[in-house]
Specification:
By secondary structure, the chain is mainly alpha-helical. It folds into two domains: 57 residues; 144 residues, no CATH class. It has ten helices and two strands; from the N terminus they run ααβααβαααααα. A two-stranded parallel sheet has the order 1-2. α1 packs antiparallel against α10. The radius of gyration is 28 Å and the shape is elongated. The relative contact order is 0.13. Its main location: membrane. It is a multi-pass membrane protein.
C-alpha cells in the first residue's frame, strides 16, 4: 500500500473513514443508478389544452354540469374546442363509460370527488392504480351546497354551520377520508416510482460523494505530512 497508517489514533480515524466511505459510496451509487434506469413513460396529455391537441375521444356524463358547460361554450374557448371529441354517456350507459375509461379505451372528464370515488373503488378491488388524474384541473373549485326552497328560514340557520365546518377544515377532512386507500393513486406521476421528472445530474446529486472524496484526500495528505 502507498500509505499505511501508523499509530492507534491514526488507524482508528482511517478505519472509520474507510467504513463511512464504503457505506456512503454504496448508497450514492445505488441512488444514482436508480435515477438512470428508472422506467420512463410519456403522458399523452396532462392538461385540457394537451387533451384537445391530442384529439382523444373523451367521455362525459350526459346533462352533467360539465357537459352543459362544454355544450354552451364558444367555439373559440378551450371547452368549445373539446366539444367535437366528447363521448356522451347517459343513464345505464354511464357504468359502461366508467369501465371503458378504467380499461384505457378513452379518458373521461368529471368532478374530482366523483373521480376519486371511482379510483377508490377500483383500487380497493384490484389493489393497484390503473388510471391517473391530470395534474392541472381546468374547471376550478366546485362548491358543494344544500338546496332550499326560496324564502326558507332554514338557510340562515344552516349557512353559519356549513361555513364553520368549511373554515375549520372538517369538510375537507371528511371528503379526504373516503379516499384514504387510494392516496397513492392521487399523487402526481412524477412523485411515484415511474417518474417523468427526469433531469440531468447536477452538482447537488454528487456533492456528498465529492465531499467525502475531498476529505479523504486531505486526510491522506495530512497523515503523510506528519
Amino acid at each position: 500500500m502507498p500509505w499505511e497508517p501508523r499509530g492507534r489514533a491514526v488507524r482508528l480515524v482511517a478505519g472509520l473513514w474507510m467504513v463511512a466511505a464504503f457505506l456512503l459510496g454504496v448508497v450514492y451509487r445505488s441512488n444514482l443508478k436508480a435515477m438512470l434506469i428508472v422506467q420512463s413513460i410519456t403522458l399523452p396529455f396532462d392538461s385540457i389544452e394537451e387533451l384537445v391537441e391530442a384529439g382523444f375521444p373523451t367521455a362525459v356524463v350526459k346533462d352533467s354540469s360539465i357537459h352543459r358547460d362544454i355544450m354552451a361554450a364558444d367555439d373559440e374557448e378551450i371547452l368549445g374546442r373539446l366539444r367535437k371529441q366528447i363521448l356522451v354517456y347517459g343513464g345505464k350507459k354511464v357504468i359502461e363509460g366508467i369501465v371503458n375509461s378504467l380499461d384505457g379505451l378513452h379518458p373521461c372528464i368529471g368532478i374530482t370527488t366523483a373521480l376519486q370515488d371511482i379510483i377508490q373503488s377500483d383500487f380497493s378491488r384490484l389493489g393497484r392504480c390503473r388510471v391517473y388524474m391530470m395534474s392541472n384541473s381546468f374547471l376550478g373549485p366546485l362548491s358543494l351546497s344544500f338546496a332550499f326552497p326560496k324564502g326558507s328560514t332554514l338557510k340562515h340557520q344552516v349557512d353559519p354551520i356549513i361555513r364553520g365546518l368549511r373554515e375549520s377544515g372538517v369538510l375537507a377532512k371528511i371528503l379526504s377520508k373516503s379516499d384514504f386507500k387510494a392516496t397513492v393513486c392521487l399523487k402526481p406521476i412524477s412523485s411515484s416510482l415511474i417518474s417523468t421528472n427526469h433531469r440531468p445530474l447536477i452538482f447537488a446529486d454528487l456533492h456528498g460523494i465529492i465531499t467525502l472524496y475531498s476529505v479523504g484526500k486531505f486526510s491522506d495528505a495530512v497523515f503523510k505530512y506528519f
